[in-house]
Amino acid sequence: MLAESPVAAEAFDKLTAEIEARQHTLAQVRRARQLTQAVIGTNLDMDQSAVSRLEHRSDILLSTLRSFIQATGGDLHLIATYPDSPPVSLQIGPSPADTGNQRQREATIAPRGRR
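Request: output the structure for the sequence above.
Response:
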């Protein structure tokens, strides 16, 4: 159908490009914040080589991702979307720094906009 309408195809291509432009790797986030791996490592209590390995992982724990984002000055928000219902905001428990040495966190689910 998109091929039948040049205007629709162009709009689709533009939207796809915008979505792709907003997808970033951890390294790109760190660079955009003008931070070095060494600085992130200091914030996360790990050495620079561990930060490099972290940035190249394809699978990462949510608690690790949250810590990385916090080390760059941000906050992590997770939102699940479903085709037949409103978005759901997932709240992750406190970070290990907040509660000591706990390794696993439970996610609590609350409708988006309600807390």
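The first helix runs from residue 6 to 22.
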